[in-house]
Amino acid sequence: MSGEVLSQNEIDALLSALSTGEMDAEELKKEQSEKRVKSYDFRRALRFSKDQMRSLTRIHENFARLLTTFFSAQLRTYIQITVASADQIPYEEFIRSIPKMTVLNVYEVPPLDGRILMEVNPNVAYAMMDRLLGGTGTSHNKIESLTEIETKIMSSMFERAFENFREAWATIEDIDPQLSEFEVNPQFLQMVSPNETVVVISLNITIGEASGMINICIPHVVLEPIIPKLSVRYWMQADKKESLSAENHLIQKEIQKAEVAVTAELGTSEISVQDFLMLNAGDVIELNQPINQPLTILVGGIPKFVGQPGKMNKKLAIQVLDTLKGGDDDGER
């Protein structure tokens, strides 16, 4: 059977057709038993799994939210940006699908190789620029005759907008987006070979009365080094590591506040119980600690340092000379 999942409306329509006799259940079984041949276009080879595409969609949903906040603050008007779709297609097909004259921003994303293309519908781009210059956000599509000032304003605006791309990708890779080209004719732009697989993330954008699309084209060569990081397993492991790291940091912070007793051991001696019972005030007990040897300093009853006794501000003190190492107690420092 086909792996296609039917919607509830399609299921209801199918059951209705079977009950009214418009479709025959036996014919359906016969069709399912027959071998089906499905054509495959090698030019549209799928190089990303559904799992990886979902991760890319998740990243760009976050990017869409960041762009909404950025443009709302810059243009001071109602902005709504959402992810419409995420597909993998040949680069040639993407170029054919966009307008002949449009706003094209090409970004480098070091340390990743290759470049990313962001295509902005001219209606949206002009509405943004009109609003930025104090207008009402009216769209005038005259992309063929952009002036140098308009080109500078647009490129500067989209360069600052794409800085949010760094934050959106922070959980996967630390990138540094940089605008390298601003173009209006896609025929003059050849980023990769025509048959190269690219991921196209389409965003719906509404600015006041104007609406349109923003398409982000990411070639396979850009994503290739980080493909393992796009799996759900990586996201779960990253979340688990962050949780453990936060928990360890909290434990360390609480331990640092704990109070421990620090004592300096002047020496030790062994006497019999009989001698101990006969001790009186003024008696002297000889210790086994030479006066030319450093004293042992205990932290919480565990030997940790060695030092020399003395006075500081008319008070008894001890100066730490070195750290005691070795044994099981060393791991508890």
UniProtKB/TrEMBL annotation:
Q: Which GO terms describe its cellular component?
A: bacterial-type flagellum basal body; plasma membrane
- Residue ranges of domain Flagellar motor switch protein FliN-like C-terminal in the record: 254-323
**Its domain of life?**
Bacteria
Which Gene Ontology terms cover its molecular function?
A: cytoskeletal motor activity
The membrane topology of this protein is: Peripheral membrane protein
InterPro entries xref list: CheC-like_sf, Flag_FliM, FliN-like_C, SpoA-like_sf
Entry keyword annotation includes Zinc-finger: no
Family annotation (Pfam families):
FliM (PF02154), FliMN_C (PF01052)
Location of this chain's protein in the cell: Bacterial flagellum basal body; Cell membrane
Q: Mind listing the UniProt keywords for this protein, alphabetically? A: Bacterial flagellum, Cell membrane, Cell projection, Chemotaxis, Cilium, Flagellar rotation, Flagellum, Membrane
Q: Which GO terms describe its biological process?
A: bacterial-type flagellum-dependent swarming motility; positive chemotaxis
UniProt record similarity statement: Belongs to the FliM family.
Q: What is this protein called in UniProt?
A: Flagellar motor switch protein FliM
Organism annotation? Mesobacillus zeae
Q: What is the lineage of its organism?
A: Bacteria, Bacillati, Bacillota, Bacilli, Bacillales
UniProt gene name: fliM
